[in-house]
Amino acid sequence: MALELEIVGGGGVSPGTPMQVDPSFGAGHIVSRPIDYGLSGIGGTVLGHYRAVGNTAPALFTANVILAALRWTDSVRFCLPLRVRASVAVATAVTAQRLDPLALFVARGYSVGDTTGATSILPSGDANKMRALMGTSLVANLAVTSAAGGLTGGTKTVDAQAIGHLGLCGSAAIAGLGTGAPTQDLYKNESGHGEHPAMLRANEGLVLQWGATSLATGTVVVSVEFEWVEVIAY
Length: 234
Hints:
This protein is mainly β. It has one domain. Helices cover 0% and strands 38% of the residues. It has no helices and 13 strands. The chain has strands at 20-21, 28-29, 48-55, 66-72, 78-92, 102-112, 118-120, 141-145, 155-158, 164-166, 180-188, 204-209, 219-231. The mean pLDDT is 85.
């Protein structure tokens, strides 16, 4: 004789709400939307979802400089990047040349932030939260560069291979005033890839680098968008 079993939510999450069963395959059906960021009634930890946008100063960027960076240092919680986007706009005319793409890398052993030549876009207080009751972001450093030499001064080891890129060719070629690359995703947390997104633990982060070719003349502005969630576990 089959035993009927009903699992009902309790505590401060969903009291009295039964667990759903998939009608097609009979499997337990659990959907967490948005990604669980902790609630005041659960362990006393309130984290959150955040989004911040920044623009570099107009600059004649040199090869492989860091245009923007995010550094995570909390040893208990984790940073889950949801999306990183960027665009490039010419501020003063650029000499026509081949340009390698901007590239997004994961940095390990990120024990000291790149704070030289930096303009911080790190949220504080209630700024840049996706909901007012969320906690203040625990990100240690979040900045775009204000210098042609990029962000410097950090201690880290950057992965040899990028996890995303923005191409500067074809319709996105940069030359005269107003040309450039429209906003594109360098990284986006989507289903697939084994269902496991990038996760940042203590002293890890993301760095966005200019390509391997320096600009000869002219200046460009790079706009960067970071979206992330801070979690207890995933």
